[in-house]
């Protein structure tokens, strides 16, 4: 659990390279490299751009840490839904 949170934080910091935000390119790289196995449409640049727009609450064209956490929360939610879905169908 602790290492998972550390990974979430260090992944953002590494991708942002000392800045407070991820620009479009860094965000795209992060999603494709780190979330390709867990999310759909990560090979589509336009889908990632749409995702970024949806996350960009302050409309600065970049993904801040809070906005990034929104994405992590979204991924975690869909993961838990798919897991509980498979539990529901188990005997
Ligand atoms: Ca933003």
TrEMBL record:
Entry-linked SUPFAM superfamilies: EF-hand
Domain of life, per lineage: Eukaryota
PROSITE patterns per record: EF_HAND_1, EF_HAND_2
Record-level GO cellular component terms: extracellular space; perinuclear region of cytoplasm
CDD domains to which the protein is assigned, alphabetical: S-100
Keywords for the protein's UniProt record, in alphabetical order: Calcium, Metal-binding
EF-hand domain span: 43-78
Membrane-spanning ranges: none
Gene Ontology MF term list: calcium ion binding; calcium-dependent protein binding; transition metal ion binding
InterPro entries: EF-hand-dom_pair, EF_Hand_1_Ca_BS, EF_hand_dom, S-100_dom, S100_Ca-bd_sub
PANTHER family with a match to the protein in the record: S100 CALCIUM-BINDING PROTEIN, S100 CALCIUM-BINDING PROTEIN U-RELATED
Identification of the protein by name: Protein S100-A16-like
Organism: Kryptolebias marmoratus (Mangrove killifish)
């Amino acid at each position: 659990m602790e290492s998972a949170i550390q990974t979430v934080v260090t992944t953002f910091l590494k991708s942002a390279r000392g800045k407070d935000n991820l620009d479009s390119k860094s965000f795209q790289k992060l999603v494709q490299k780190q979330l390709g196995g867990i999310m759909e449409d990560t090979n589509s640049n336009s889908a990632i751009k749409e995702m970024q727009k949806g996350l960009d609450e302050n409309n600065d064209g970049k993904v801040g840490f809070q906005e990034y956490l929104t994405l992590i929360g979204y991924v975690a939610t869909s993961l838990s839904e798919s897991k509980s879905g498979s539990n529901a169908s188990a005997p």
